[in-house]
Amino acid sequence: MSQPIRFALAGFGAWGKHHAKSIFDNPDARLVAISAPSEASRAEAAQLYPQAQIFADSLDMIAQASFDIIDIVTPSHTHREIAIAAMKHGRHVLLEKPMATNVEDCKAIAATAAECGVQLALGHELRLSSQWGEIKKVIQSGTIGEAQYVLVELLRKPYRQGADGWRYDQNRVGSWVLEEPIHFFDLARWYLEASGDPVELYAYGNSRDPSRPELFDNFSAMFKYPNGSYAVVSQTLAAFEHHQTVKISGTKGAIWAGWSGALDRTTEPSFFLKVFDGETLVDQPMAKTSGEVFELREEIAHCIRMVRGESHSLASGLDGLWSAGLCLVAEESIRQNKPLPVADLLKF
Q1: Which CATH architecture group holds 5-125+297-315?
Q2: What is the CATH code for 129-289+324-346?
Q3: Percent of the chain at pLDDT above 70?
Q4: Taken in order 16, 331, 185, 273, is the CA torsion positive or negative?
Q5: What is the largest CA-CA distance in the chain?
Q6: How far apart are CA 11 and CA 17, in angstroms?
Q7: I want to staple 166 with a disulfide (CB 3.0 to 4.6 A). Which of 75, 191, 223, 288 is the partner?
Q8: What's the whole-number mean pLDDT along residues 157-171?
Q9: Strand, coil or helix: 74
């Protein structure tokens, strides 16, 4: 019988607490250490998880605790330092998106994983979804032919502030495009994988608040491929609840999927997946409930298999670099008000 995989958790904020519960509830995992900067968060972590060592600083935890993999759920601007420190200690890493707030840091994280011979998994948990992941399987099956067009769209209420308001501080969040749209760039690129790599991107954005024009309440981007396929990623934070849509058309058929909840982390959403093969429309059955709370559980289980050598990361460092990079190219496209070549800016 395999020994449980020991997890350290960096970050115990709103989403970090969900990570902690997903680790704790998995019988093949042990939550052995938690770091949190605030005294209140540390007290809560100690009360909920008395078996775990509690630290005020993530770097101290890395240096002092014994664990197999660190789950990093800290503000985006801290990712590089924590991830690289863990990898240099020989630890595997599950890193929440975005990988980092700039391309150079993303490349440094990916390079360190390769140099240290450790596994790096990016938190693109939608790939593990019974709904969004099922779409990839439908595309691979050839049911809709060759995918030519992808739309990923989100209508939702404004973002949470985050601990100490970091999500509304551009110096720490980097960009709102790096928050949820990064998932949609990842999905669209994943769905259009057969088309190769995107070559050009054009984006638009605006804000309701003139005091923070650099944080886009409304954002849309279109990127295209050498074979003529293209994707559209669009989001508004100036609305209500949480409603995500994916539409895909292929050379034979099409896909339409939707997810709705009063909140993004609801455990009782409504969702559907319709598949048209060119002749017949089918409501695709899904074995599990769709939603990021459920997908996080799948992500922890996948990381356990990864650490045991039974699986590779479903979203690699290169995937993390691409998704963050496309977001940053989109930011630059908005600033320059024109389409931009992707490869020249990302310099892979």
Answers
A1: 3-Layer(aba) Sandwich (3.40)
A2: 3.30.360.10
A3: 98
A4: positive
A5: 61
A6: 8
A7: 75
A8: 86
A9: coil
